[in-house]
Amino acid sequence: MRLDKLIANCGFGSRKEAKALCKKGLVTVDGVVVRRSEAHIDPECNRVCVGEHVIEYEKYSYLMMNKPAGVISATFDEEHQTVVDLLEERYIYANVFPVGRLDLDTTGLLILSNDGGFAHRALSPKKKVAKIYHARVDKPITDSEIKAFGEGVTLDDGYKCLPAKLEAPEDFDDFAKVEIYEGKYHQVKRMFAALGIRVISLKRVEFAGLTLDEGLAPGDYRRLNEDELKIISNLLSKD
Ligand code: URA
């Protein structure tokens, strides 16, 4: 890997800034000053330091964000702020992207990563990864909607969804918990719409066995911890 790329990916600014750090003689590889930022090093074997800081290399980044409303699940958009705009520069330089999409007005758990293989598996329809949402709806849910979700709702384009779980606690008229195993466009809103119910707000609370860290304020994010990484890798290694 190029030295300037490693330095930038690990949070020391852009590639240009990384080059400047090398030029100034602030970067050492195994204790030797390296000024050539284009030098190739092995981040898993070489010890790279920027000044006093030892670079801790991670091949891939995995982040959990509490996505706020009004921010788009994309890497670039001309009109709206994107979830990637909310990240520290180091993740932008490391090409982190959202794993799947939540609508502009949907909030909650969004995973971001630069591991394309992981994203592909997590989003593959074959994996039937579970996603749980909390919805506020405009009408009380009855047994008939619960049954319809369980049998598979047919959407406006004729697609018949996989059986899904719908729960509605009796003491809340406008709250519903939905668990789905696929990710069609606007799926939850369209499932309710097919039954004449409008979703007023939607929040994802679980994805692929991970639960939203409610300690994250909207727009905040953190790296997945060891346990969470294990949950994901176990789930995705299964056929
Ligand atoms: N279903 C929706 O309707 N919207 C989302 O953002 C996610 C699932």
Task: Please describe what this structure looks like.
- It is a single chain.
- Helix content is 24%, strand content 23%.
- The protein folds into 3 domains: 3-54, Roll (Structural Genomics Hypothetical 15.5 Kd Protein In mrcA-pckA Intergenic Region, Chain A), CATH 3.10.290; 62-124 and 210-237, Pseudouridine synthase I, catalytic domain, N-terminal subdomain (Alpha-Beta Plaits); 130-207, Alpha-L RNA-binding motif (Alpha-Beta Plaits, 2-Layer Sandwich).
- Strands 5, 6, 7, 8, 9, 10, 11, 12 and 13 form a 9-stranded mixed sheet that branches. A 4-stranded antiparallel sheet has the order 2-1-3-4.
- It is built from 7 helices and 13 strands.
- It is of the alpha+beta class and 239 residues long.
- The protein has helices spanning 3-9, 15-23, 89-93, 116-123, 143-151, 187-194, 226-237; strands at residues 27-29, 32-33, 48-50, 53-54, 62-67, 97-98, 107-113, 131-137, 165-167, 175-180, 199-207, 210-211, 221-223.
- The two termini are 32 Å apart.
- The longest helix is centred in the C-terminal third of the chain and has 12 residues, at 226-237.
- It is elongated.
- The relative contact order is 0.15.
- Uracil is lined by residues 102-103, 106, 186-189, 202.
